[in-house]
Write a structure and sequence with these properties.
Number of strands: 11
Strand order of the largest sheet: 3-4-5-7-8-9-10-11
CATH topology: Lipocalin
Structural class: mainly beta
Number of domains: 1
Largest sheet: 8 strands, antiparallel, barrel
CATH class: Mainly Beta
Distance between the termini: 74 Å
Number of helices: 1
Length: 191
């Protein structure tokens, strides 16, 4: 009986060693406060379930144009650059002019090709930060900050700041002004 117990004890210790060695629990971090760097393989999770409040279609008008922006929450997505998983919003949009003609429409592209991608909440206010990269408009890039206008969360304040874009000869807008597909400042209303 003693020999049997020693064998079982050794087997148990070997199994315990392998489990302890190869089992790594994923560290979970909240979207708030925004962390500047997270460990590789960790998960930046929407622990407060804030992102669903932004989901849906939002509408606004500017310069005789109407924009429809649809936000969708993606969960547990791996970021190959940052090397961790995260929850974030993506945005797709459609812009029509005063005559009803479609100027820009990426509402049917895949989620992986979305031109608007969320990052995090600002540390000191309630703004959620997103980036906009449009390869169809000569790699136009911008930063977007959104926040709710009121407690009913039916209006969204949108502030977009364009980055510096280098226009090359391959760009169809090489000697002209690149169109601005999205407004800089607007209040969007939930549809």
């Amino acid at each position: 009986m003693t020999k049997y117990l020693k064998i079982m004890k050794n087997k148990f210790l070997i199994i315990l060693f392998f489990v302890a060695t190869f089992c790594n629990a994923q560290q979970i971090y909240s979207l708030r406060p925004a962390e500047s760097s997270l460990p590789e393989g960790s998960y930046q999770k929407d622990t407060n379930n804030e992102l669903p409040e932004y989901e849906g279609t939002w509408k606004g008008t500017w310069d005789n144009k109407t924009v429809f922006v649809t936000f969708k929450k993606l969960t547990n997505q791996y970021d190959t650059d940052l090397k961790y998983y995260k929850d974030y919003l993506i945005g797709k949009f459609k812009v029509i002019d005063g005559n009803g003609s479609v100027l820009f429409d990426n509402s049917t592209i895949t989620d992986a090709s979305a031109k608007i991608m969320g990052h995090s909440f600002r540390r000191y206010n309630d703004r959620y930060l997103l980036s906009y990269i449009d390869y169809d408009l000569c790699n136009t890039n911008a930063n977007i900050a959104i926040k709710f206008a009121d407690s009913s969360k039916t209006q969204l304040i949108w502030k977009l700041t364009y980055g510096s874009n280098m226009i090359t000869i391959e760009c169809p807008y090489y000697n002209t002004q690149t169109p601005e597909a999205l407004p800089k400042d607007i209040v969007l209303t939930k549809q």
